[in-house]
Amino acid sequence: MQTDEHPILELRNIDTHYGPIQVLREVNISIRSGDITCLLGGNASGKSTTLRTILGMVTPSRGSIHFRGNHIEGISTTELVQLGVSMVPENRRIFGRMTVLENLEMGAFLRKDSNEIDKDMERVLDLFPRLRERLKQLGGTMSGGEQQMLAMARALMSRPSLLLMDEPSMGLSPLFVQQVFSIIQEINEQGTTIFMVEQNANMALSIANYGYVLQTGEIVLSDTADNLRDNKMMRQAYLGET
Amino acid sequence: MTDSNAAQMIIERKHATRTMLIGIYSGLVALFICLIGMVETFGERDIIGGIISMGHTMLIIIAIGSGAIAVKTLREDMSTPGATINKTSFVVEIFVGVTAGLIVGATLSLFVFATELVDMRSVLINVSPGLLEMLTLQKPASQVMVTMTVLGSLLGGIGAAIFNIAPRIRLPLVLGLTSIVSLGMLRDMLKIVLTREGWPSVLLNFLVKNQGLSIAGGTTIFATTVALVIIWPHLPVIYDKTVRIIIAYVPKVLQFSVGIIFAITLTMRVFWFIAISDKDLPILPACQTADNSPDVGLDKCISIVSNDISTTTDLLGTNLATLVSTIITVSEMLIGTFILLCVIFAIWNIRQRVNTTNIKSTLEDPNNALLIIAKRNISAFFGVSLLVSLPILLGVFPSEVLLNVGLYMLMGFGLNIVVGMAGLLDLGYVAFFAVGAYSTALLTSPRASIELGMSFWAALPIVVLITGATGLLVGAPVLRMRGDYLAIVTLGFGEIARFLFLSDWFKPWLGGAQGIILIPPVSIGNIQLIGPHKLYYLIITGCLIALFISARLRESRVGRAWMAMSEDEQVAETMGINTVYYKLLAFGLGAMIASLSGAVFAAKLGTIFPHSFNVLVSITALSLLIVGGIGSLPGIIVGALVLVGLPELLREFTEYRLLIYGAVLIFMMLSRPEGLIPRVRQTRKLDDQELNQDAWLHDETEANNGPSVTVT
C-alpha cells in the first residue's frame, strides 16, 4: 500500500436534499490516494446517498466535491467514469441476461485500447479464477457470491483509479464475505484506491486505513481504522460490544 | 387396475369436480361461440365440401379439446408429489374424457331444447334458424338431444384417447388433421393460387369441391402431411449426404455455372414479372381515390389504367420482351443440361475415385469447412429464390397479403430496436409510421399543398430524416420515464399525432380528414411498381435491410449498451453508458425504420387518411413482437406472418378478428410467454457442465452449516 498525502477525492460541506428532506448535513470526507477508506453507518444513515452524490446521480444542494483537485459536482456519471471512478453497486446488480464475459466487456465500455483491455481481462480473471470457468454462463444464473465477484471484476475493467463499493458484504455467506474482503485488499495492493460503504464494521475496519462514521446524515466520527476499532463509542454502537 | 380401483379414483372428489368444471367451461365456450354467431358464420365455409363445415369443426375441436384438457389436468395432478394415487389407467382416462365431452354435448343439447321452448331471438339475435339447423342437422330437437350428448361424450373420449397413443403415431395424426382443417379454411386462397395461369387446373379440381376440399383432396393432404412428418427428422441427413456428394464428386466449374445461370434466370424472371406482365391488372391508386375525390372520375381512372399498360409495353417494346423470354427459356434449358451433367459427373467420379482417401475424408469429416460453406450457400440461394419468386408463384391477392405482412414486419423490426433492444416500451409507434407516410405524400404528390411532386426515391432520404427527427422530438421529453409511464405517454403521443393530422389547423397542408391524394407510385427507371405483386419487392428489400441493420446493431457496441440499459439503467450509467444518447438513438432509429414502412404504405395506397393511423397499428406491431418473442429477429418474421398474414387470409371473418386476436394473445401469455421463437439468450438453461460447477457450492454450504458465524 503506497499511501500518499494527496486526497484523490474530497467532499467539502456537502448537503444533499431529496425534495424537502435533508439527507446529508455538512459531510466532509477526504479519501487519500492509495488508501482503503470506509464509510460506516446503520440503515438510513445516508451512506448510499453519499455515494450517489459522488457519482452525480443526485446533485448536492451545497458544498463541493473535488476529484484530483477539480470540481466534479454536477457532472454526469458517464463523465465521472471517464475520469477514472468506478462503482460496485449495492446488491451486485450485474447484467443477468449477459454472459460473464459480456458483463466484463461492459465494464470496459468506454475504453478503446483493445490490447490493454485484454490484459486487464487476464488480470481480473486471475484475481477471480472462478469467473474464468464461467465466462460463457449467463450472469443471472450464478450464485450471489459469484455475482459479487463479477460485479467487482466488472468495475475493475474500466481500470479505475478510485473504486467505490456499496455494501460489498451484503447478503453473502460468511465464507464469501471473508473471500470478498481479502480480494478487496488485493485490489488495493495492486494500486486502486478504494472507498467502501459498509454496515459490517468489523470486517471493513479490519482492512481499511481510515474510516468515517455516518449517523443520520452527519459524520460523527472520523479516524484511522486502528483508532476507530479502539474507540469506545464505536465499539458499543457498531462492533457489537456491550 | 381393477374396476373398483378405478371407481374409487373417480369418486375422489377433487378430480371429479375438476373434470366437470373443465366440461362446463368448454360447454360455455361452445355456447358462447354459438351465441355470438361465430358458428353460423363459419358454418358457411366447408372444410370438406358438403360433409363438414368450419362451424361444426369448431364445436368438434372444443369437445375433443375438453377431453384432452381433462386428461392432461388429471395427469398433472397425479404427478404432483403427495398425490394419493399417482398412476392413472387407460379406462379411467377415457372415462374422464367422456365425462368432460358429455357435459359439452349436454350443454349444447340443453341449449337446443331451450330454443324449442322459448323464442330467444328477440334477445339473442344470433340464435337464428340457420344456427339451429346447423346444430340439429335439420332433425327435430327431441331426437337430436340424445345424439348430441352421445356425440359429445364420444368426442371427449377421442380427446382422452389421443393422449394414450404413442407420440410416434399421435404427431402425424394430429398434424395431418390440422393441415386438413387449415387448408380447408384457406380454401379461397387455394382457389386463387391454383386458378392462376400456368398452374394446371386438374390440381384445383382435384383438391377443391365448390364449398370446401373434396374428399379425395382431404385424404391426399392428410397423407402428404403424414408422409412429411415421418420424413421430416431424416431430412437434414439426406440434405447433408447430398451436399457431401456434390462437393466431393462434382467439379467446381459445374457447380458455379449452375448457380450463376440459375441466378440469371431468376433475375430475368423477376424483371419480366415486374416490367412486362400486366395480365392480372393491378389495383391502381387512381381507381381507389376515385370514390373519395370528385375530380378524379371513373373515365379518368380508366384512361390512367390504359395509359399505364401502353407505357409499360411501349417502354420495353416487343423486342425486349421477346429477348427476356428467350433468355429465360435458354437458361432454363441450360440449367437442365447442367444438372444432368452434374449427375453424370457424380456417378462417373464415384465409380472412378471411390477408394481414394482424399474424397473419403471430405465425405466423412463432420467439421469440414467446405461442407459448411456449401450448405450455407445452398440455403441462402434457395432462400433468396423463394423470397424472390413468391409473388410470381402466388399472384396478386396473396401478394397483397404478403405486402401487408411486410409493412408490419418492417415496423416490427423498427419497434424491436426501441422495445426489444433498448427496453423502452413504446405504445405510440404508429406516429412514426404516420409521419413517414405523410411526409412521403407531401413530398411526392403533385396535388399536395407544397406541390413539390418529387419522385419516391428523391423523397425517401428526406422522409427518413424528418421521421428520425420526430423520433428524437418524442424521445426527448420522455427520457426520464420508464416502463408503464413511458408506455402511457407514448400512447398519448401516438394519438396526438393522429389528431394533428386530422386537425383543422394543419388542414391546408395535410388535408384534414380527406388526407392527401394522388401519391404517385414508386418507379424504378421507367418501370412503375404498381400493384402489390410488384411493391412486394420494395418491401422485401426494406425488410432485409432492416433485418441486416438489426442483426448488426444487436452484436455491436450500441446493441450492448442498449441491452445493459434495458436491464439496469443506473448501473449502465456507472459503466459509462450515456443513457440519454442511447435512448434518443433508439427512438430515432426506430422511427426511421417505421418511416420506410410508412413511405411504402403511402406509395401503395396512393391516398392517405388520418384514420389509417389509429392505435391498433401500434398494438399490432407490439403484439407481433410479443407473439414472436421479444428481441428475437426470426420471431418478428413469424409474428408478422401469424398476426397479420392469417387474419388477412380469413377476411370474411373480420367481425371476429379482434376476438380471435385477443384469445391468441391470452393463450400465448399463458402457455408460451417467451414467444413462438424466443431469443436464445432468454431461454438458455444451464448445461450439465455448468451445473456441475455449482456442485462445490452445495457441498460447501452443507459443510458450513455447522459452525455458522453471525456477522453484525
Number of domains of chain B: 3
CATH superfamily of the largest domain in chain A: P-loop containing nucleotide triphosphate hydrolases
* Adjacency order of strands in the biggest sheet of chain B: 1-2
The radius of gyration of chain A is 17 Å
From the spread of the alpha carbons, the general shape of chain B counts as globular
Q: CATH top level of the largest domain in chain A?
A: Alpha Beta
Mean pLDDT of chain A: 87
Do you know the CATH architecture of the largest domain in chain A?
3-Layer(aba) Sandwich
Largest interface: A-B, 39 and 31 residues
Task: Spell out the blueprint of helices and strands.
The complex is a heterodimer of chains A (242) and B (712).
Chain A: E1 7-18, E2 21-32, E3 36-40, H1 47-55, E4 62-67, E5 70-71, H2 77-83, E6 85-88, H3 100-107, H4 114-127, H5 129-133, H6 144-156, E7 162-166, H7 174-189, E8 193-198, H8 201-207, E9 210-215, E10 218-224, H9 225-230, H10 232-237
Parallel strand pairs in A: 3-8, 3-9, 6-7, 7-8
Antiparallel strand pairs in A: 1-2, 1-4, 4-5, 9-10
Helix pairs in contact in A: 3-6
Chain B: H1 3-11, H2 13-35, H3 38-43, E1 46-48, E2 52-53, H4 54-79, H5 90-117, H6 129-136, H7 141-164, H8 167-185, H9 187-194, H10 201-207, E3 208-209, E4 212-213, H11 215-231, H12 235-249, H13 252-275, H14 285-290, H15 298-353, H16 357-364, H17 369-394, H18 396-421, H19 430-444, H20 456-475, H21 483-502, H22 507-510, E5 522-524, E6 527-529, H23 532-554, H24 557-567, H25 569-574, H26 579-605, H27 615-628, H28 633-649, H29 657-671, H30 680-683, H31 688-693, H32 695-704
Antiparallel strand pairs in B: 1-2, 3-4, 5-6
Helix pairs in contact in B: 2-4, 2-5, 4-5, 4-7, 5-7, 8-11, 12-15, 12-16, 12-17, 13-15, 13-17, 17-23, 18-23, 18-26, 18-27, 18-28, 19-20, 19-21, 19-26, 20-26, 23-26, 24-26, 27-28
